[in-house]
Amino acid sequence: MSTTPRTPRTALALSATLLTATVALYMVLVAFGNITDFGTNQQFVQHVLAMDTTFKDEDLMWRAVTSKGLQDAAYVAIIVWETIAALVLVFGTWLWFRGDDRARRFSTYGLLMVMLLFGAGFIGIGGEWFAMWQSGDWNGLEAATRAFLFSGVVLLVVNLPSAGERKAS
Q: How open is the CA angle 38-45-116, to the nearest 5 degrees?
């Protein structure tokens, strides 16, 4: 006999489950790829932080991070964040499959982690602070925007009120 509250099996719960699972899969693959093919995206992070393919505007170049140690530390921090987000989303998916009421909370945490990484990290800091938008070779804004928007849509679905919650209000 389980004492864990159960989420009713509805189309909304199924949608939240499968969409959370999709973002979880994406993040697992992103983290796995960055761990097993460390050098590929390491170069990306190095070039973005060094700002070596931007317009080289003197008013912006003071922002460049050229220390390989700091660049590598930033990349490792990104991978750690991706891995934790993936694990939280996998756990959230498992909770949805079980019908556990904590599923929404953990899915929300994981989705917010993804949105912070791609929104604040890649779009805000990489795109604007390090002027990634100026680079023809090392511009990840389109991919970051896709991941940010997809995670945002899933976050909205996950947090839609269930039929029981709508009746209670």
A: 100
Distance CA 73, CA 151 (A): 26
Question: In the block, which residue shows the tokens 């023809």?
Answer: 136
10: tokens are 């509805």
Buried (b) or exposed (e) across 73-112, using 16+ Cβ within 10 A? ebbeebbebbbebbbbbbbbbbbbeebbeebbebbbebbb
Residues in the chain: 169
- Alpha-carbon distances, residue 154 vs 20, 74, 140 (angstroms): 7, 27, 21
| pLDDT per residue of the chain (169 residues) written in tens, 0 to 9 | 556 666 557 999 999 999 999 999 999 999 999 999 999 999 999 999 999 999 999 999 999 999 999 999 999 999 999 999 999 999 999 999 999 999 999 999 999 999 999 999 999 999 999 999 999 999 999 999 999 999 999 999 999 998 777 666 6
> How far does CA 55 lie from the centroid of its chain?
28
Q: Residue 85: name the closest of 154, 37, 134, 131 by CA.
A: 154
